[in-house]
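Hello Y.,

Per our agreement to keep a running log of every chain we model this quarter, I'm adding this entry. I've kept the format consistent with earlier entries: sequence first, then predicted structure.
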Amino acid sequence: MSLNVDPEILSVFGFWSGLLALKVMAMSLLTARQRFRKQVFANPEDTSLASKKAKVDFNDPDVERVRRAHLNDLENVVPWFIATSLWIGTGPSTWLAGLLIRGFVISRIIHTIVYAIVPLPQPARGLSFGVGLLITGYMAVSTILHYSS
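Predicted structure for the entry above:
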């Protein structure tokens, strides 16, 4: 079996997955920003980096919201990277690959915005999550069907 990946699809995947990787990495910085803003940290030694009123707290709702958004990214982006890396070897159309790759990354960016930056009521977060989940599911099933034959 040989993999023949369209260079245009690989270019789209490379660009958009690079953006997605930066977005996931930025979640750590967003968590740190919330910790310093709220003066709540996960470890006693970290409080020395802040003011005298800094404390250890594992239940600050603002910090935990960002951490949950970051965890949600990790739970969804890692499977997408794996599924997409395999799926682009199945010979999808350039149009479909571009649409799904861009769609997933944009859905994750929207998810972060409506979950951790400017929380909006449902269904905003649910819809952005669902779009990404459907895209990853489609790619995974298509890959399984392609390689099982």
